[in-house]
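Contributing new records

If you add data, match the layout below exactly. Sequence lines come first and carry their own label; structure lines follow with theirs. Keep one chain per record. Anything else will be rejected by the validation script.
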Amino acid sequence: MKKTRFLIIASILAVTITNLKCAKEPLKHEQARHMVLSKTSPDYSERMQAIRKNYYDLKLDEKFKPKIKDDVSWTPDWQHPTSQVISDSV
């Protein structure tokens, strides 16, 4: 009887501790605001320029060059950028 009672209490304690440790931390509003690339943000053009600079600095354009067929290629449209906001509720 004491062994069963101990196992039940230990199980409940383990489940409680696990649930407390696995809780998602809330995202602070300031962090979320800086992560989203919105057209209405004041630094939108600066951030787009930084993305463009990193694209060429990291030589990502080389990775998009085809290895087999040269007739297919992709280059970003830097003159008409689009931004997308994805709401993450997870």
